[in-house]
Write a structure and sequence with these properties.
This protein is an all-alpha fold and 93 residues long. It has helices spanning 2-12, 16-24, 40-58, 65-88.
């Protein structure tokens, strides 16, 4: 029986574990969900946006309408960064 198994594995062209997996799951083995990898361009974009926010906050006038507009713009950019990070993590924003 062992010889027959070895012959079937050899004839299939698969590894032993691949042969067993295919036999157990009828050719369709469940796959783990792949983890998304960090996109370097996306990371660079996020770093640039974070630097832009830091620059804006550094020049923020105290207690003026212009300051409120800058804070709102920073919030919008932070929302973009959050959305981008969620996408990189493979989640819906």
């Amino acid at each position: 029986m062992r010889d027959e198994f070895a012959a079937r594995v050899r004839d299939s062209g698969l590894s032993v574990s691949g042969f067993i997996t295919r036999a157990v799951f009828a050719g369709v083995a469940p796959r783990a969900r792949p983890k998304p990898s960090l996109d370097r361009a996306a990371a660079a974009t996020l770093l640039a946006q974070a630097a832009a926010i830091a620059d804006r906050l550094g020049t923020l006038p105290q207690g003026s309408q212009e300051g409120d507009e800058v804070v709102q713009a920073c919030r919008e950019e932070l929302l973009l960064i959050r959305t981008f990070l969620m996408q990189l993590a493979g989640r819906e924003p």
